[in-house]
C-alpha cells in the first residue's frame, strides 16, 4: 500500500482489499466488523510478515551470529524503534514487549508497586476502567494493605468528574492509573491534564492506552506519563504482543518480574547483573514473530496516518450518533455528538426491552459483528450505568458509513422481532 497524503480522507474500499477477512461471509452475508475495540482485523502485510519470518529467517534473537539470526534480531529490534517513534518515546530503551496491555499493567503493579506502595498508601484509578486496570491494583491493595480509590463520573456518566479527581488527589496517591479512552463509553480523557495535576502531588502516572494508541496520534513525551500500556492485537498486529512504555528513570529503578535468559548481562554461581533496558524485562525467548508482525502493523498504520485514522473514526462516530438519534427506545451511553472531540469510535447502546445478547445475535444474522456484555468493565456497566450488559459497536479504518447504515437497519430488525415501538 502506498503512503497517503495526510489531508485526504480514507478510501475504505481500497483499505478493505488489504484485509483478507473481508472476503468471508458471516451468516451468509458480507462481514461487517464492528468489534475492533475487542480486537482489530489484520492486513495481508501483517500476515505476510509472519510467514516471511518463518520461511526466510526463522532464528532466535540476541544469540546467533549467523546471518538469519542477525536479521531476526534486527527486525525485532526495529519493531520497537517503530513503536517508540509512533508513540513519541525517546527510543527502544523505553519499550518493553509484553503479551498485552493486561500484562503491562500487572508488570507495573507488581514490580513498581511492590517496591513503592506501602500500608495505607492510596492508589487512584477511575470508575471507567477495564478490569485490566482494576484487578492488578486490587491485588496490590491486598498485598500491601493500601487503599484503592476511584474517580467518579460526571452526572451524565459521560466523563470523569474533575472535582472527584481533585478530591482524590488530596490524598496524595502513590500512583494514578487511568484509561486514555474508555472501551465502553468511548470517552477520551484529558490525560495530559490528569498527568500534570497528578505530578503536582508527586504521583507516578500510568495511562492505559489500549483504546487510544490504535486510533489516534499519541505522544507520551507531551502527556508526561511514567508508563503507557498498549496491545498490538488492537492495532492491526497479532495477538500475544503488547508493550509497556516507561521512562528510563522509572524502568531503571524497577526489578524485573522474571529471571532467565536474555534479561541478564552476567550470571555467576552467587549472583547476576541485569541486562540494559529494555531487555532486562524480557526473560526467555521473546514472541519474535509477534514483535516483527507488530512492526509491519505499525508500518501499515503510518502509511495511512494516525491523524487521518482518528479523523475518519470521528466522522463515522458522528454519523452513527446522528443516525441513532432518530431512533426511539434506544439509549446511547457516553459523550454525544456535540462532544465528538472527546469521543472515540466506540458506541455502547441499549434497546429498551431487549437483552443485548439478543441484539448481538440478530446483528450476527445480518453478518454484523458487535459485542454485548459487560465489556470487562463491570464496575462501570453494572454499578455506574446500572445495566447487566450493553451492546457495543466500535469502528476502525476499514469501516464505512455503509456499515453503520447496516447496523441501523439491524436495530430496526431487532425492534420488529421484539415488537418494540418505532
Ligand atoms: C481500555 C482497555 N484496557 C485494557 C484492555 C486489555 O487489553 P488486553 O486484553 O489486550 O490485555 C482492554 C481490552 O479490551 C481495554 O479496552
Give an account of the 3D structure:
- With 422 residues, the protein is an alpha/beta fold.
- It has 2 domains: 12-41 and 305-417, Alpha-Beta Complex (Aspartate Aminotransferase, domain 1); 49-303, Type I PLP-dependent aspartate aminotransferase-like (Major domain) (Aspartate Aminotransferase, domain 2), CATH 3.40.640.10.
- The protein contains 14 helices and 17 strands.
- It has helices spanning 12-17, 44-56, 67-86, 101-116, 135-144, 162-169, 191-200, 220-223, 248-253, 288-304, 306-325, 356-365, 378-384, 401-417; strands at residues 25-26, 29-30, 32-33, 95-98, 122-126, 147-151, 175-179, 204-208, 227-231, 242-246, 264-267, 272-274, 330-333, 346-351, 368-369, 371-373, 390-394.
- The strands form 5 sheets. It has a 7-stranded mixed sheet, sandwiched between helices.
- α4 packs parallel to α5 (135-144), α11 packs parallel to α14 and α12 (356-365) crosses α14 (401-417).
- It is globular.
- Residues 100-102, 130, 132-133, 179, 183, 208, 210-211, 231, 376 line the site of pyridoxal-5'-phosphate.
